[in-house]
Design goal:
Distance between the termini: 34 Å
Largest sheet: none
Number of helices: 5
CATH topology: DNA polymerase, domain 1
CATH architecture: Orthogonal Bundle
Oligomer: single chain
Structural class: mainly alpha
Length: about 90
């Protein structure tokens, strides 16, 4: 199980740092650096789902703007929405 978690973590790190826009690379990279080691297996899978969303919708969700998607009310989405990037 730990190898599965380590594989998921590696995938999350890559997907959060190589998005396509520099702004989202920095935002999601900082977010995952802060929370990655605090999350359990289910939370990591939720984070993977969040990272599959396109940059525009993620940016709008983070900033409280209208999105084309409906975001679930779960731990990861709430952490991301309330994350303060400095």
């Amino acid at each position: 199980m730990t190898t599965d978690i380590e594989q998921i973590k590696k995938k999350i790190i890559y997907r959060s740092n190589y998005r396509g826009t520099k702004e989202m690379d920095k935002l999601l990279g900082a977010f995952t650096n802060k929370y990655l080691n605090e999350l359990d297996f289910n939370d990591l899978n939720e984070l993977l789902k969040l990272l599959e969303v396109d940059d525009n919708n993620l940016y709008n969700f983070y900033n409280g703007l209208k999105t084309d998607l409906e975001f679930e009310n779960n731990k990861i989405n709430n952490l991301f929405k309330n994350f303060k990037y400095l």
